[in-house]
Amino acid sequence: MSIKLRKSDSGIYRQTIRIHQHTVFADVSKELGGDDSAPDPHDYYDAALAACKAITVMMYAKRKQLPLDYIDIDIERDNSREAQGVYVLNVQLKLLGQLTDEQKSQLAAIADKCPIHKLMTTATTEVKTSFS
């Protein structure tokens, strides 16, 4: 899998990101000198967790034929201690459907087993940067 990134023609820091056949953009806030024309990289990091949890829960519910109609996820970021190596994401799940309390608990546990959650909390990520 390859992600291609290039400076966008517009904006001071705006980046064009190509992932498979998709194009998205990244920028930084005006407070950081950007144009705030797209989500910043932290937003994508946080959104990856939310999307993974939602997809994982929906797939599990479908496979187990649980009556999950909809899932809504809100993430609140606390990056006040990021410089000290602490980055907190508070995740609030809202499950809609005719679910029992036991099924809701089961789905909440499954949400914490999504691959991105595991990567963020248990894996060691190695980043190797080179120049060409």
Can you summarize this structure?
With 132 residues, the chain is of the alpha+beta class. The chain has 3 helices and 5 strands, in the order βββαββαα.
Largest sheet: 3 strands, antiparallel
Percent helix, as a range, is 25-40%
Number of H/I helices: 3
Q: From the alpha carbons, calculate the radius of gyration and give it in angstroms.
A: 18 Å
Number of strands: 5
Please list the strands of the largest sheet in the order they lie side by side: 1-2-3
Mean pLDDT: 96
Strand portion: 25-35%
The helix/strand order is EEEHEEHH
Q: Gap between N and C termini, in Å? A: 19 Å
Contiguous runs where pLDDT drops below 50 for at least 5 residues: none
Bulk shape:
elongated
What structural category arises from helix and sheet content? alpha+beta
